Amino acid sequence: MKAKEELRKKVLKHLKGANYEPENKSELARALEVPSKERKLLRAVLTELEDDGRVKQLKKGLFVLSKKAVASESGGEIVGTIRFQEQGHAFVADESQGQNARWILIPAKHTGTAMDRDRVSIALDRAPEEKPWLKHIKDPERRKRAAGSGRDRQQGRVVKVLERRNATVVGIFRQRKKFSYVQPDGMALPTSIELKREELPDPPPRDGEKVVASVDSWESRDASPRGRVLRVLGPPDAPGVDILSIIHKHNLPLEFPEGVLAEVEGVSDTVSKADIEGREDWRDRPVFTIDPKDAKDFDDAILVEKLDGGGWELAVHIADVSYYVEPRSELDREAQVRGNSVYLVDRVIPMLPEKLSNGLCSLKPDVDRLTRAVIIRFDKHGTQTDVRFVSAVIRSQKRLTYEEAFALIKTTGNDPVAVRVRTAWELASLLRTRRFQNGGLDLDFPEVKVELDDRGRPVDLVRVDYDESHQLIEEFMLIANEAVAKATKDRLAPSVYRIHEDPDPDKLNELRETAATYGIRVGDLSNRDEIQKLLAQADGMHEEHAIKIALLRSLKRAAYSELPVGHYGLAKVNYTHFTSPIRRYADLLVHRVLGRLMEPASDGKKFKTPKLAKIKEIAARLSVTERTAAEAEKETRRLKELEYFAALVGNKGKQRTFRATVIDVRRMGVFVELSDYYIGGLVRVAQMPDSDGGARFDPGENAFYGRSPKWRIGVGDELEVTVARVDIDQQFLDFKVVGSSGQSRPARKRSGGGGTASPKPRSKRGGASRKKTYNGASEQPETSARKRPSRRKRSQRKRSGNR
After folding, report:
1. Which end of the chain is least crowded, N or C, by CB within 10 Å?
2. Cα(first)–Cα(last) distance of the chain, in Å?
3. Does domain 168-238 sit in CATH 2.40.50.700?
4. Domain 74-163, CATH 3.40.50.300 — does that match?
5. pLDDT of residue 528
6. What does pTM read for this prediction?
7. Alpha helices (runs of H) in 295-415, residue ranges in sequence order
8. Which residues contact 153 (CB under 8 A, 6 or more apart)?
């Protein structure tokens, strides 16, 4: 009994550790160093803890502390990372619960002296069940969902800042006589940061200039923090200052340390004979690359050849970055800190210095380059029959853009390059069909690029088609990632995996109800076939994009993990990131793991990999850097989109019209999405068509009506709109209706009730721009494609209590 009690205490202590991530029974046994003969005792302890309600078992047999245990062990306090919203409130997720943690709302007045991304300790306030309005909901399922809604979410308050992770802010420098301060950008920051006059830079910034400031001390919410000016960015309207502000807001590095540059300087500019020794020579094989026309870092090259008797051999060559970046070097440490390259609207902030990223590691044509290759054979049905991994040297024979590759796929001539591309697409299209048959979700999304002039001003919005050339490369990268993940998993090698956990059933039920409002009836969405049925029914509808966004919101966020738990969206049991080591540190680490398996007789220096505990820590950090990069990329793109529309408002003589689809109806107006650019905005009541009786909102029909002339606007209707108002600070984008496909038509009822206008089927958008959500750095299943404007106006100075 004594041994059992001691083991019980060890288990609880381990599970409430600050860096604990959910583990299964075997992993717990290894972490606690439980001998084989005592594994039965461990299983008994875990069962008892579950029965007591102190431990909870998640899907896939992973164990975490229950909320009851967290409260009792920490005196009712929970530890996690705080994430602020622009409105001033914040959310914290219990870090001991891993990816399955529920977000706890921290009202603005209870955020204390915490700043975005700080590690904090919070105390829970009353539980949702205590709130009286829930008693009036009779249906148990509705009551359960309402208890977790934003209206009645579990709330808490910050007790202590445990670790300050982001002590710099961007804002406007203000000089008032002898008093100097910084007015931070954003609602989720303190009103002002006081500056000491003697610590101002020489020369000091001018009043109204953008600066980067530190927060050196902050004792209480009732007092302003104190800090220093670290860098002067310049006037807010100066070219480039807007993007620099976002870069510094997210603490993205602009320069490499001198030690890193010194290491890279010592690397040769060319591939030598010694570098090639022991590698398979593919230099006489017609491998080629397909990339965006403005790309400079070519990670991958491919070759597909038909085999005698049917079938194919696919070679996926990936730049051998691990050959040049040695573990624990200055270059490696900097790459790990950065985590990934960041692709902003006007620049790339690379993970590796340009000499490597755009030079020696980029698979340019007509030069020797070192690669790690995955060679896979398929039979005539697309079933994988063999796979091998090799170190190789290649000389790419052709650099194709996506546009060029798409044109070659559509040709019928005998040009050797065209034949190779068509052969590759023949295999890729078969793999794509099989993937969807196996349960993969077809969640394609548009990509809209903002074209800038030499001063950084937006001049046009360009839709990039997600056509067969993009799909070709995607399928080959997916199959290579899957093959590497299976190899490392089968050999029990500690590695980093790309995971996407199963969605929460409650959120899927909410999605089912949302689909019903659009007239789509489906069964239990925890069944993958029903989700595919939902996507099939939405295909070609006005509301297709809105439904896909709703589906993404119901899914969990893809992340990195040391556990190979699979990828829900791709329907793959084994998945990792291997194909982009130039721009993702996770891929570089996986290259080293694979190198150890391929070359066990080597001295191991180039393939030295961390132990499992360290990999867990790295994976968690890489998930954070990836999210930070995605937020910065989205923010810069949105900024330039709004600047583009603001310029249209200012150009009254040449106002441009856009096609838009109504995706939601509220009393304040209708939310629309531009059909060609998938950018959302609001048509307020005052911007609807003129009529004698004004616009009338019918809550039963969930639509607006006009009397003379008669018109109707509801979900699914297509409108012609112009830009009415743009507020870049608040990110408002308002439109005005100039035409409507819904005018003078009777209201239509949905089958099955609901009362709102039924969707109007339409043909698929020809050549619609698509961007694959589940591949590469774009795997963000909880990211919304639009931001609804708030009616609350911003105050420059009256922000106390709303930080």
Report:
1. N
2. 53
3. yes
4. no
5. 87
6. 0.79
7. 330-338, 354, 402-410
8. 103, 104, 105, 128
